[in-house]
From TrEMBL:
Organism: Sphingobium vermicomposti
Pfam families in the cross-refs: NfeD
Main location: membrane
UniProt protein name: NfeD-like C-terminal domain-containing protein
Keyword Translocase tagged: no
InterPro entries attached to this UniProt entry: Membrane_assoc_protease, NA-bd_OB-fold, NfeD-like_C
Length: 148
């Protein structure tokens, strides 16, 4: 009976491993497995060209993994993927420019405003409840407002 390490004695084991990692990257996108798959594929090609022992193949694979992941991270840092909606997960930034209603008077620069169906803390010029204010910024979850 052949164990799973024995399969890697042959270059086909590395190439199959690379293909499985490539399929996993497509099924579970995370832009990480593709670099490990590349390292496995290159290891398989090296094992095809030069007969190597299993421990040497693992050392080559480990080194290529480090190089591939490092290179991939550098490439993505230099070529960032632009989002179609860069404010998707930044709710406070999405509110900038919105005109909202003061629900607790802004007194001494602090009050509460209604945004949709929720109430947020705010900072801004004094204003009575019912006033309309415009969101001009945010500090964590505290909205900065001005009179609209």
């Amino acid at each position: 009976m052949m164990d799973w390490l024995g399969m890697l004695d042959d270059h086909w084991g590395w190439l199959v491993f690379a293909a499985l990692l490539g399929v996993a990257e497509v099924m579970i996108p995370g832009v990480f497995l593709i670099w490990v798959a590349l390292a496995a594929a290159v290891t398989g090609l090296i094992a095809l060209a030069v007969p190597l022992s299993v421990p040497v193949q693992f050392l080559i694979f480990a080194g290529l993994c480090l190089i591939a992941v490092w290179g991939g991270r550098r490439w993505y840092a230099a070529n960032p993927v632009n989002s179609q909606d860069p404010l998707l997960n930044d709710r406070t930034a999405r509110l900038i420019g919105e005109v909202i209603t003061v629900v607790e008077a802004i007194d001494n620069g602090r009050g509460r405003v209604k945004v949709g169906d929720s109430v947020w803390s705010c900072r801004g010029p004094d204003a009575p409840a019912g006033s309309r204010v415009r969101v001009i910024g945010a500090d964590a979850s505290v909205l900065q407002v001005e009179l609209a």
